[in-house]
Specification:
Number of helices: 10
Distance between the termini: 32 Å
Radius of gyration: 20 Å
Structural class: mainly alpha
Number of strands: 0
Shape: globular
Helix content: over 70%
């Protein structure tokens, strides 16, 4: 690596560091707007919830576009787009509750079956190798970290019954629990959307990696 290349690498790392700092500030800023300015209780109609839904929709759109323009990884990207679409439907459950309570499960199941069925029937040869290649990339760490933040850490650390009722006693406030849990979820969705952005923004690079993996598999 030349000195010029080293400088470019350091500059790129510095830019990413600044990006990560901004990402970490999004959740606290959204909570501040909701609690200090709008004085709401982090309900379904709040800056925090709307930001969550925006990030999830952004990730779903990126993977859907990547599936369209990247045939060697179409199956993998289609499944990822379907996953984030189901997450978005779940986040919009209150909207679907106007039909009846729990109706969100119907469109979520239809979306999942459609994406899984299409990927298995028409794109089965572009699922496993691209998925394996993805697990070797840095974006995978962001994606899994965000997923675990949403599904595990936010539920456990944000649990009022498990932790905060015992810590705060009579001072326990449900709004505190809601703000903490929703803020952690927003942080997780931020990481996941960033992973989707990094994975899908450089399609040619990832296409070359996938093609190389396919070539090695054929040679074996």
């Amino acid at each position: 690596m030349s000195a010029h290349d080293a400088k470019l690498q350091i500059l790129a790392s510095a830019k990413e560091l600044l990006t990560l700092i901004v990402m970490l500030l999004i959740a606290p800023l959204a909570l501040y707007i909701d609690l200090a300015i709008l004085h709401n209780d982090i309900g379904e109609i709040s800056v925090t919830e709307l930001t969550q839904e925006t990030f999830v929709a952004f990730a779903a759109l990126l993977f859907a576009l990547a599936a369209k323009r990247t045939p060697p990884a179409r199956g993998f990207y289609l499944l990822a787009a379907g996953f984030f679409s189901c997450v978005l439907i779940r986040e919009l459950d209150q909207l679907f509750d106007h039909v009846y309570h729990g109706f969100w499960l119907i469109p979520a199941l239809l979306t999942a079956m459609l994406c899984i069925g299409y990927a298995c029937l028409y794109c089965n040869d572009s699922i496993w190798i691209p998925l394996a290649a993805f697990t070797k990339q840095r974006e995978y760490v962001y994606m899994v970290g965000g997923l675990l933040m949403v599904l595990v850490f936010s539920r456990v650390f944000g649990s009022g019954r498990l932790l905060w009722e015992h810590i705060m006693g009579q001072d326990y406030n449900f709004v505190f629990k809601s703000a903490l849990q929703e803020g952690l979820e927003l942080l997780g969705y931020t990481w996941m959307s960033y992973a989707a952005y990094c994975q899908c923004w450089r399609p040619q690079t990832h296409t070359d990696e996938i093609q190389s993996s396919l070539t090695r598999l054929v040679d074996v």
